Amino acid sequence: MKSTTLIAxxxxxxxxxxxxxxxxxxxxxxxxxxxxxxxxxxxxxxVIAGAGGSLTLRxxxxxxxxxxxxxxxxxxxKCEPPxxxxxxxxxxxxxxxxxxxxxxxxHAGDLPNLxxxxxxxxxxxxxxxxxxxxxxxxxxxxxxxxxxxxxDEATDPDGNAGARLACGVIPKRGE
Length: 175
Prior knowledge:
The protein is of the alpha+beta class and 175 residues long.
């Protein structure tokens, strides 16, 4: 491996470690308001900081099509309707391939599919396997996206999850 590649890899790992430390300093709970493409509120997600820097994401949403939907943390904390492309790609600071089942590791923003019931609602609590970063340290932060289709957990870069149905910005600290 070339020394420049090693230096770049080391820098990414240091950044990831620093991110984990800053998450440990965030408030115990950070609320994320989820909105659909029409700008209507459809529920919320809460990032819960636990012991040892662990993170859990609690999601409560309504008014969605029944069935499984891809659910990811995206790089940019912008949710401009109607397509939410402003949120950018999945959060992936270590340059991994997509998919929670990928043997080489997945994007830091890859989450399990969100299963929406026949009434259009979903409620789930999911551990975040990799601390993403403290809200507001990145410019302009990160976003949570619910996609139209299920994530196949394999296809790079987005698991064929389709259009973006809903988005929520992880607020900056103190907002």
